[in-house]
Amino acid sequence: MSLMLHAGAERIDYDALHLMPTPEATETHVPIAHSAVVDMVRYALGYYGHDITQEDFGVTPDGMRFFGVLSLQSPYGGYTDTVGLRNSHDKTFPIGISFGSRVFVCDNLAFSGDTVIRRKHTVHARRDLPGIVAGVVEPLQAQRASQHAQFSRYQATELSPEAADHLILQLYRKRVITVTKIPEILGHFENPPFDWGGRTAWRLFNSVTYVLEGRVVENPRATTDLHDIIDAVAT
After folding, report:
1. Which of 3, 102, 144, 230 is the most exposed place for a label (fewest CB within 10 A)?
2. Averages of pLDDT over each 10 residues, the chain, 235 residues
C-alpha cells in the first residue's frame, strides 16, 4: 500500500468515499465533497496525459478530513511518481495537492512539494476549482522530469561517513527528524534493508523516508527540507 495513516484516519475505497455525506452548506461555507476533489484531479491528470495506476484513500472517523495518493505510471525505474491529496470539511486545512515519489522496494513516500489551493469554500470556489486544479496539474510533466534529474544526482553523489553524519544532524536541526530517529536512520544508511546502491545521497534519502513511514501524506511538506539539505551536496 502506498498510503500510510498515522493520525486516526481509516482506509476507504472510492465507492465508499463517493457515498460519504458532505456537510450542509451555509452562507459562508460550502464544503466540497472529498470524492469531487478526486474527480477533478483525475480529470486533470488524464487531460494532461498522466495515467493513474493505483489509488489509495483515507478519511478520519468523522469524515471531516480526507487524504489520498494517486500513483502515476512512470518511465523511470526504481520508483513511481505520486500525487497526494488533502481536503477537509472542518476548515482544518484547504484543499492540497502534492507531487512526490514512492520507492518500489520499500513503499516509502516522499513529497517534494505541496501546492495548497487556498480558497474559502464558497459557491464561487466550487465553480472555479476545476480550472484551478487544472492549473496545478498542467506543469506536472516538467516536475516529473525535474525529479528524475534530482534523483540521478543523488545516486551519483558519494557520501563519506562524516558527510552522512553531518547531513543527518542537519535534518535534526531543521526538525525534519526527531533525535529518536537518528540511530534508526544511521543504521539503515550503514546496513540498508533494501538495495539502495552504494553509500550515496540516494541511500541516505531512502533511509530517511523509510523511517518516516509515509507520514508525509498527512504533512506533505515534511520532505521539503530533506530535499533542500541533500540538494546542497548533490550538485
Report:
1. 144
2. 62 93 84 93 93 90 88 80 86 80 58 63 73 86 89 96 96 92 96 94 92 62 84 93
Provide the whole-model pTM. 0.74
Q: Please list the helix, strand and coil fractions of the chain in percent, rounded to the nearest 5, in that order.
A: 45, 20, 35
List CB contacts of 50: < 8 A, sequence separation 6 or more: 72, 73, 137, 140, 141
- Specify the residue for cell string 534508526: 184
Bridge partners for 55 per DSSP: 70
Report yes or no: 201 and 154 within 8 Å, Cβ to Cβ: yes
Sort strands 108-117 and 95-103 into parallel, antiparallel or unpaired: antiparallel
Coil, strand or helix: which one is 54? strand
Contact 4, 212 (CB under 8 A): no
- Amino acid, res. 40: M
